[in-house]
Amino acid sequence: MLVFTTYNVKTDLADMEVHRKGTTISGSAMSRKAGDTEADYEEITKTEADELRRQAKAEQEAEAEAEAAERARKERDAAIVAKIRVCYSMDEELAILRQRDVKPEEFEAYYDYVEQCKADVDEEIAAAADEEGGVEDGSDSDI
């Protein structure tokens, strides 16, 4: 049975935990938040609490993986742009893109160069990943 005090909620059953509904938070006792009512809490078994903790950990790991993938994508994009800037300024790129139908040979040379920059960066990333023992694939870039 749940026991409510002014500041805390606890369970008096050894095989149960207090769970704040809508969260992954549970324990044998916890502090009440201002405005909480008894309806905000429930008793759950320790097995259910363990499952909530596993789910929370899996969600955190998935979020961390997504953030790492986004960082890797941004780093790849920045490396590609840096390589492109060796031969083409932003203004030159815009001019080539604007005149792609008028100067198709110039556009084709630019396009080939950009594709080579992307391939070079992907090779560098793969080589770095091999050295670290991991596998990186940044080919889902927007560039």
Give descriptors for this structure.
143 residues, alpha+beta, three-stranded antiparallel β-sheet, elongated
Q: How would you describe this structure to a colleague?
A:
The protein is of the alpha+beta class and 143 residues long. Helices cover 56% and strands 15% of the residues. The chain contains 3 helices and 6 strands. It has helices at residues 46-87, 90-98, 104-132, and strands at 2-4, 8-11, 16-20, 26-27, 29-31, 41-45. The strands form 2 sheets. It has a 3-stranded antiparallel beta sheet, with no helix packed on it. It has a 3-stranded antiparallel beta sheet with strand order 4-3-6. Strand 1 (2-4) and strand 2 (8-11) form a beta hairpin. Helix 1 (46-87) packs across helix 3. It is elongated. The N and C termini lie far apart (58 Å). The mean pLDDT is 92.
